Amino acid sequence: MGKGLGNQFLDEVRRADALIVVADASGATDINGQVCDPLTHDPIEDVKMFENEFDQWLNALLKKDWDRVSRTAQSVKEHIAKHLEERLTGLGIDRYQITQAVNNAGVNGFKSAHWTDEEFEDFIINLRKASKPLIVAANKADREGADKNVERIREAGYLVVPTCAEAELALRRAAEAGLVDYTPGDNDFKVKDPEKLTKGQLGALERIRGKVFKKYKGTGLQDVLNTAFYSLLDMITVYPVEDAEKLTNHHGHVLPDCFLVPKGTTAKQFAGIIHTELAESFIHAVDARTKRRLGDTYILEDNDIIQIVSAKSRR
Question: Does residue 129 sit in the same domain as residue 239?
């Protein structure tokens, strides 16, 4: 309908590796974003609306010259993924994801010119799922009845994390003011000087503890980010160091960097992520824990601490 940011928003999505859809689990926000009575709106409708909008946008992008591209691929007896890869690179979509979408849609990648409209639409839906996996942040999860909607979203087949942004904001502001000890992602917080707080402030903090932390073990904001990276994108954490003995960089800082990389990344690929020159002159890597020498095909594991040895790094 052209409301909100419209296509500008969808263009921003092209940069994303995963999508977090924020829905009002309390059912107090309607499909147009207007306040309504609690539990009168179904948050699943919001998620489905977003999926539909995204699919229509992706459909329109590919439909422009689909006939030409699909006929070309079929005439040379090549898989459609090869011919779509270059067109979709700007959307962060690779050949593997295109092939995965073709397979999941149950269509023939070598006969794309003969796909029906329904098969093309199924391919689009599966391409979105493969390239931009989605998680639902069920916000306002502390409100009355919201927990039932959280469970309904889960039963509808979505990966969902209950969140309470209002509690997170209140705790961050309290922490900045020195009233509480709290770091985003913590499963509890500590009131520093209760005697300095008003009854209203203490009551608000106790409500947060009771309705949010005791029930959900936190506000969920950090949890939804972690779930997106580690569950949806299947990432692992790797720590590069320049000195495997002291676990430092050349400034003497201990474990100065942390990289999130896809599971299956090799030592040489990781060197290229740090700097292209390290990969080009890669000799070997060193496991800082065991001091074992690792070859270029070594597949990194979660929480590895790695020193990259290359001709460039020796200069």
Answer: no
The tally of domains found in the chain comes to 2
Write the pLDDT tens digit of every residue in 158-181: 999 999 999 999 999 999 999 999
Range of the domain at 280: 235-310
Q: Give domain status of residue 154, yes or no.
A: no
Task: Find the CATH number of the domain harbouring 69.
Answer: 1.10.8.470
Return the closest-CA partner of residue 215 out of 155, 138, 136, 135. 138
pTM confidence score: 0.83
Q: Which of 99, 117, 134 is the C-terminal boundary of a domain?
A: 134
Q: In what order do the strands lie in the sheet with 293-294?
A: 259-262, 235-241, 304-310, 282-287, 293-294
Handedness of CA 159, 161, 162, 165 (dihedral sign): negative
